[in-house]
């Protein structure tokens, strides 16, 4: 998969969009305790802790957890991070939590529909009755329809030189390949590194059905973090907000 040290992520832009969306929902539901599922480098978790939430972050990658802990320390943010899979949440961190979120398309790391079904069952199991889950995946149908294979090209400084990352998709069914080409400048020449991964590219209708099967209620789907209603043709994201039975 992509290099974890994702300096190319525009954290300021992401957090400026995503944190107000999350805190808006949390305020509406009186949320105090939050689980960041697949927390990655822990930027959201640290930001929410600084906003006064009691936050726990979990990720399957030891490297991600180490990076998240270091970031929280730097920011003096009180977050507890642990290593574990979202397929085993109830065993590793039973909660219950008032809320959880799983962003950055992390649920698409499931390898099958059955696995995503299991993950959503685990989400419900660690929420208190009436607790809220937020999960963002890509709107695969819309992106394929629009032929948007190139996700981004970004350059950033690294070790006094320059690096360029190109991220693009290969459409498939039920999985897409996601490819990262990293170009590193060495003197006058460039060296290329290629990483790839696989994303479970479920259409929204399947995603919606899985939330129902996991016994979540009142699931709503947004197309972006400004709460634009999901549109299969126009949206880039598919953001589910759903509730554990009360
Ligand atoms: C694209 S990153 C997103 C990270 C973070 N949520 C964000 O928005 O920046 C996907 C994350 O999912 C994690 N992940 C993949 N499969 C997982 C699993 N089964 N359980 C927990 N984390 C998982 C990866 O280690 C990675 O940190």
How would you summarize what this structure contains?
The chain is 29% helix and 37% strand. With 246 residues, the chain is α/β, with parallel strands linked by helices.
Ordered list of secondary-structure elements with their pairings:
Elements: H1 11-28, E1 33-37, H2 43-50, E2 54-59, H3 62-74, E3 79-83, H4 89-92, E4 97-102, H5 113-125, E5 127-138, H6 140-145, E6 150-158, E7 161-170, E8 175-186, E9 189-200, H7 204-213, E10 217-222, E11 237-243
The structure holds S-adenosylmethionine.
What does this structure look like?
This protein is 29% helix and 37% strand. The chain has 246 residues and is an alpha/beta fold. It folds into 2 domains: 11-139 and 201-243, Rossmann fold; 142-200. The protein has a 7-stranded mixed beta sheet, with helices on both faces. Helix 5 links the parallel strand 4 and strand 5. The longest helix has 18 residues, at 11-28. It is globular and about 60 Å long. The mean pLDDT is 95. S-adenosylmethionine binds at residues 38-40, 59-61, 64, 85-87, 103-106, 109. S-adenosylmethionine binds next to loops.
């Amino acid at each position: 998969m992509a290099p974890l040290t994702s300096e190319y992520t525009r954290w300021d832009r992401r957090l400026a969009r995503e944190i107000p969306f999350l805190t808006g929902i949390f305020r509406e539901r009186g949320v105090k305790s939050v689980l960041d599922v697949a927390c990655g480098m822990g930027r959201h978790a640290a930001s929410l802790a600084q906003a006064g939430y009691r936050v726990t972050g979990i990720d399957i990658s030891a490297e991600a957890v180490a990076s998240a802990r270091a970031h929280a320390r730097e920011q003096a943010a009180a977050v507890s991070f642990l290593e574990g899979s979202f397929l085993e949440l109830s065993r590793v961190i039973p909660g219950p939590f008032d809320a959880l979120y799983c962003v950055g398309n992390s649920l698409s790391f499931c390898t099958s529909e059955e696995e995503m079904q299991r993950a959503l069952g685990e989400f419900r199991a660690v929420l208190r009755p009436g607790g809220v889950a937020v999960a963002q995946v890509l709107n695969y149908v819309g992106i394929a329809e629009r032929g948007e294979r190139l996700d981004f090209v970004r350059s950033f400084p690294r070790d006094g030189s320059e690096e360029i990352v190109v991220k693009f998709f290969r459409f498939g069914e039920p999985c897409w390949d996601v490819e990262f080409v990293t170009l590193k400048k060495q003197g006058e020449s460039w060296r290329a590194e290629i990483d790839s991964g696989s994303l479970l590219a479920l259409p929204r209708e399947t995603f919606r059905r899985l939330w129902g099967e996991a016994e979540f209620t009142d699931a709503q789907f947004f197309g972006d973090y400004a709460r634009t209603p999901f549109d299969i043709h126009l949206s880039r994201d598919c953001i589910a907000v759903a509730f554990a039975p009360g």
